[in-house]
Every structure is written in C-alpha cells, then in structure tokens.
Amino acid sequence: MAAALRQENRSIASGSEGEADRKDVTVAMAPVGEAVALLLVAVLWGSTGPFLRTGAAGLEEVRRQGRLQQLLAEIRFLGLNYKYMVPFLLNQGGSLLFYLTLASADLSLAVPLCNSLALIVTLVTGRILGEDIGGKRAVVGMLLTILGVTLCVAGS
Q: CB of 70 within 8 A of CB of 114?
C-alpha cells in the first residue's frame, strides 16, 4: 500500500565511472511496516462488522422498565456474549493500531485508504457469511472504490 509513501532523496551517478556529475532523484518509498499496519486495520475493521451484527442478534428482545435499566440490560447482554465481544475487541484493536500508525503515516492517504478498503472487506466478509450484499451494484461499487484508491495512491 502506498498509504504511507515517503519521499527520499538519493544521488544517482550519471554517465561513466568516475564522473563527478550527479543528479538528485526523488524516489517514493512505502515503509512496509506502515503499509502492513494499514492493511491490517482495514481487515480488522472490515471483517468484524458482519460478525458484530451476528453477535448482536437477540438484542431487540431485551426489555426492561426504564431507560437506565434498559441500557444496563443491553450492555450486560452484549458484554457477556462472546460472539459479540470477540469481534468487538478485534475491531477496537484495529482502531488502536490505526491511531498508532497515524503518527507516522500520511494522513491524507491513510484515512481514505483504510476506510475504503474496510468497506470492501466488509462486503466480502458479509458475502462469505451469506449476507445479501446487493448483487451487481455492490460489485460495481467495489470496483469503483478500488479505482478511487488507485487514483488516490497514484496522485500522491
């Protein structure tokens, strides 16, 4: 991923051996660690969404008198449900990794890339789990998202 492109100046010799004529050339380098971290964030965010929906099934059936008791009952239902808590904690781990990666990544690329790739991962994961993702329109949307990410990276 080129979300974390950095510019590095290197001198490159031109001509034959021994010539003192050198040109500075700017080479774009993407730190592998940042790229992997941003890709992992997208996978963590995208893959946990469908599992969070599945884990929260039955929440609508929780009924208590009063707003505070209802809120506490819902928190208890979700907090004690491992099918919800495992994806939730993985999702929050992705958020923490994103926050830590932003310290060194190019913000104008990292945010749109992570969010758009997370959307694609969400659609693919939902499809694998048997959710209706929208058919051909979803596929066209994914292709347009990939095109937008490519243009974003190429323009940086």
A: no
